[in-house]
Amino acid sequence: MNFDLRGKKSTTLHAIILGVFSTAFGALLAFTDILTADEIALRMAEDLQASLVQVIPPAIHDNNPVKDSITLKEGAKDLIVYRALKDGKVTGVAYEIAGNGYAGEIKLILGVDAEGKILGVRATAFKETPGLGDKIDAKKSDWITRFNGLSMGNPPREKWAVKKDGGQFDQFSGATITPRAVVTAIRKGLDVFDHNKARILEVRS
Ligand SMILES: Cc1cc2nc3c(=O)[nH]c(=O)nc-3n(C[C@H](O)[C@H](O)[C@H](O)COP(=O)(O)O)c2cc1C
Which long-range contacts (CB under 8 A, 24 or more apart) does 17-20 make? Predict the structure, then answer.
């Protein structure tokens, strides 16, 4: 009888200790979450600014393109279009495009001027093989800069492909999948600009 009572007491005590620890641990996790969420948001904003500056020359705008962004509906997805403005007029835009590479999704940022001419393209995230597919990285080769100044129509649509597919862009030796994915992504990205040009260039005062 005595033994039973001691057993009940110790079970209650264990339950209380467990409760206190799990509540304290939960609170600690929530607190760390709040702290890191701010840090992550800050890092993401810095990364975005670093990418934007590479595809929208600072000389063509007097605004913060992030603040003057608009959101387009692209199928089921939202596409944020960062807009560069000078004297109240859109001089260029940048938005994310993506392709299916050898090792998964390749994310890129495409900068286009108000006439639809490419200002710059940069690969922002990919897992392509070092030494093969990673030549899309501006730090590894100048391949990605060869799109500068081009637009849909220059070259003609059918030439927006790698040479192996009858287009005008070099593939890499032994690695055609990666550059093919990037050229396709850019071609589709230029179509996004053309299809949404009126909305992209519209500035409401
Ligand atoms: C381990 C390994 C990694 C590869 N990585 C890539 C890559 O990152 N990008 C790519 O385009 N091809 C890559 N390839 C080659 C592709 O499998 C494919 O053969 C090639 O893209 C086709 O190009 P080709 O028509 O010029 O031969 C890789 C192949 C192997 C075996």
Answer: none
* Percent of residues, the chain, with pLDDT higher than 70: 97
**What is residue 5's predicted lDDT score, i.e. its pLDDT?**
58
Q: Give the DSSP per-residue string, 171-203.
A: -BTTB-HHHHHHHHHHHHHHHHHHHTHHHHH--
* Ligand 1 neighbour 111 (Cβ under 6 A): no
* Residue 177 · residue 103 · CB < 8 Å: no
Contact by Cβ (8 Å): 95, 80: yes
Cα distance between residue 133 and residue 113, in whole Å: 28
Q: Considering Cα of 139, then 140, then 142, then 143, what sign does the dihedral take?
A: negative
Query: Domain tally for the chain?
Result: 1
Please check whether residue 46 lies inside any domain of the structure: no
49 occurs within a structural domain: no
Give distance in angstroms: CA of 180 to centre of ligand 1. Answer: 11
pLDDT score of 36 more than 90: no
The reply to whether 170 falls in a domain is: yes
Q: Residue 136 C-alpha to ligand 1 middle, in angstroms? A: 14
